[in-house]
Amino acid sequence: NAGVTQTPKFQVLKTGQSMTLQCAQDMNHEYMSWYRQDPGMGLRLIHYSVGAGITDQGEVPNGYNVSRSTTEDFPLRLLSAAPSQTSVYFCASSYTAFDGRNTEAFFGQGTRLTVV
Amino acid sequence: TQLLEQSPQFLSIQEGENLTVYCNSSSVFSSLQWYRQEPGEGPVLLVTVVTGGEVKKLKRLTFQFGDARKDSSLHITAAQPGDTGLYLCAGAGDSGYALNFGKGTSLLVTP
Fold first, then answer.
1. What is the spatial distance between Cα A51 and Cα A60, in angstroms, rounded to a whole number?
2. pLDDT tens digit sequence for A9-43
3. Are B18 and B74 in contact (CB under 8 A)?
4. Backbone angles phi and psi of B85, in degrees to 5
5. CB distance A31–B50 less than 8 Å?
6. What pairing do the DSSP bridges indicate for beta strands B10-14 and B105-110?
7. Which of A38, A45, A87, A88 to mutate to test the interface with B (most CBs of B within 10 A)?
8. What are phi and psi of A12, to 5 degrees?
9. HEC states along A9-27?
10. Residue B46: is its pLDDT beyond 80?
11. Is the separation of the CB atoms in B109 and B18 below 8 Å?
């Protein structure tokens, strides 16, 4: 069972470079989201999607773009990397929304990004 | 954004001890979840609590949802080294389509 797959697992970028973090899920989940995790900060929501063609901003969206052309894939693009974007990035998916429901979020293993 | 405050931030105990982790908010949540994260891995769901006053047990772990649905607690009885990890509480964000997380409690259980 693949679940949520993130690539790459590790990446080093120079300031100003752009790159795309890939996220794919094989569970036919409509809801997908991207989080960043920094020491002592928990997970903070960057962007989320409720289905193909529909995305919205989370708590910390600046410097990141997303698109959702298929149900399976939800890539996260860094337009011009900055040292402040050094973090561990997690992609998650769920079958339904979370409000009042017994819904599980499934997470990928994360991408550890360093911007120098 | 509905904030979730977790305490303590760090906890180091010896095998066999009991502990409680707290998750508090000034906002009402329709449900709260607890996730456990091991180094190099993504969070994994432990439990969802939905009803105010609800208590759920998962082996040595006991989860409680406050009557007012603003807080939750995780109690571990007779902790074991395998319980070591980062414990995160999470609630539905403003849209309900993604989660808001607390900052986490890092637990270390030594033999």
1. 20
2. 999 999 999 999 999 999 999 999 999 999 888 89
3. no
4. 160, -175
5. no
6. parallel
7. A45
8. -120, 130
9. CEEEECCCCCEEEEEEECC
10. yes
11. no
